[in-house]
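Exercise 7.
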Amino acid sequence: MRNGIPCKLLLILALLAFGWSIADLRAQDTPQQPSSGSSQNPNKQDVPADAGGPGGDVGPYAIPKRKDEAPPPAPERPKKIEGMPDYSIKVDVPLVNLDVLVTTKDGQFVPHLTKENFRIFEDGAPQAIANFNQSAAPITAVLLVEYASTNYNYMYEALNASYNFAATLKPEDWIAVVSYDMRPYILTDFTQDKRAVLGALNMLRIPGFSERNLFDALYDTIDRIEGLEGKKYIVLVSTGRDTFSKLNLDQILKKLKNTQNVTIYAISIGRALREMIDARMGGAGGIMTTDWLQADNQMNTFAHMTGGRAYFPRFDGELPEIFHDIGTDIRNQYTIAYHPTNTKLDGSYRKLKVELVAPDGGPLKVRDQKGKDVKVQIYARDGYTAKHQVE
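Solution. The predicted structure, written as tokens, is:
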């Protein structure tokens, strides 16, 4: 205190003389806290709380923050129609494969035909050919031989024909040998060993039974091979007679109708003996002659229904040429495929017809080397059963 005046009062009076206010003094006594969104820089503007962009040391302007856009709504699922199955439907378009053999009247294969030379009809309706080719390929075949205790001539001819067939085999061919009397016997399963085939035939020396159950043996053979992939053949060496089968002719024909990719080539045995007996009896064979005619008819039917051929040799010398023809047929067929216009797999039997046409649409004329017209024959299956394939 100086002369009764407090020192603090004197200080205040001095400050007032310099223009300071009491409010300024109080502000200095109270520390200032920076407010939200501001800095201690007096020149900087307050930045909105939702602003983005750079910090305040760049300038007074803040770049507005881009608001997050809401994701687009998910597309609506199609409404389920009542009664409509909730799965996709796959449609299998059936494909029919048809092997066609074209020969001259004397059995010579006719080569160099094209897709345009063929017309396919199914139940009378023309079909568009999808695939076409001609190739020489190895064969898969069963040699089915009748070997029963009946007559020496039959047994001799059966063996002679079988050996002639074995002589035509090529190293890449697959062959099985089955004999039958009362029942079938598998002498060798499929093999490419020609010696195994000959060894199987050498086993045929002493027949067991006199019964010739052709229908049962043929049915069993087809049943065993129809599940194999690719084209299969049965070379049937038989008299064509059936004596005691459990199955009847209608059942074996039904089996053939329901079987695809199996072709039968039938070689009849015992024809020379028949003709000799018939000559001795003066043509009065009676029931025996009727049985032989029925047997020949069955052999023809089995072959033609499956697209093969039937042979009825009179002499042993015919056999080499017959099996040469069969080998040519098997290895040089035309393979044709088409999608039928009738796509229903309803188990119905469809009749097939194959015709040859010239480029101008007229009948195809085949000429020999001398320029003479020759007649041709077409061998193909009579039809097929439209059914679902079992996989």
